[in-house]
Design goal:
This protein is α/β, with parallel strands linked by helices. It has two domains: 136 residues, 2-Layer Sandwich (Nucleotidyltransferase, domain 5); 82 residues, ATPase, nucleotide binding domain (Nucleotidyltransferase, domain 5). Helix content is 31%, strand content 28%. It is built from seven helices and ten strands. The longest helix has 18 residues. It is globular, with a radius of gyration of 18 Å. The N and C termini lie far apart (62 Å).
Length: 235
């Protein structure tokens, strides 16, 4: 029998409000904390992390891997999450890993047990647009990426939905009257990405040998911010 070393993981999800923190031993959840709406700042996130560690009697130096939701999502939330993850990993000598936020949403789908062949994960990009990615069933019954994360207008996305597609993500709650009537809507409790899933995906990737470069890890914004777009127009 193969023996798998237990890895203590700190997982951060700050791509959407309110966000969450999870502590895991490999893929096993040990503790989870939903953040307050005003806790997605560098100054407030660190005390929340230390407080959760203290509850378990763990030290921050016990963490061997810091996993973070890498985007797409909120510009501010992603910047804070990735910055804290990199700073902490560097300070304690831990590995760091970014996890795609849309993949997190897809992996949370409990509708995946049915025979649907396609799944859409979406997030609000504002301005009548969505961040979206499409997954298709693989030979082992899991999901493989069919369309990588991209920016799409809401109407254009709605036109791509087919009967039997699973759809999940925070915008589904408001868009469901417009979605194909034969699409399968994920349970609302699974729409928002969770730190627990971030940690579990990171644990699996870590055991498979994946290691991310600390200095190369950056948020996946998928678009310019409003301020950057204005500056680009002025040029």
């Amino acid at each position: 029998m193969q023996v798998i070393d237990i890895v203590r993981i700190l997982a951060l999800e700050t791509a959407v409000q309110p966000g969450s923190i999870a502590l895991l031993e490999s893929a096993r959840l040990v503790a989870r904390l939903d953040l307050a709406a005003d806790s997605r700042t560098t100054r407030s996130l660190m005390p929340a992390i230390h407080g959760q560690l203290a509850v378990l009697g763990w030290k921050v130096t016990d963490m061997e891997l810091v996993a973070v939701s890498q985007g797409p999502g909120s510009f501010t939330g992603l910047r804070v999450g990735v910055t804290v993850a990199k700073t902490l990993a560097y300070a304690i000598g831990a590995e760091v890993m970014g996890i795609d936020t849309l993949e997190v949403i897809a992996r949370q789908s409990i509708s995946s047990d049915n025979q649907s062949e396609s799944l859409w994960a979406i997030m609000d990009a504002h301005r009548q647009q969505l961040f979206c990615a499409k997954y298709e069933r693989d030979a082992e019954g899991g999901w493989q990426l069919a369309q990588p994360p991209h920016l799409l207008g809401i109407d254009a996305w709605l036109e791509q939905i087919e009967a039997g597609d699973i759809v999940s993500g925070p915008p589904v709650e408001n868009l469901h009257p417009q979605i194909h009537p034969q699409a399968i809507l994920e349970d609302v409790a699974n729409f928002a990405p969770r730190a627990t899933t971030v940690g579990q995906l990171a644990a699996k990737a870590y055991q498979q040998g994946r290691r991310d470069d600390l200095w190369g890890l950056t948020p996946k914004y998928l678009r310019l911010s409003a301020a950057e777009e204005k500056r680009a127009v002025r040029r």
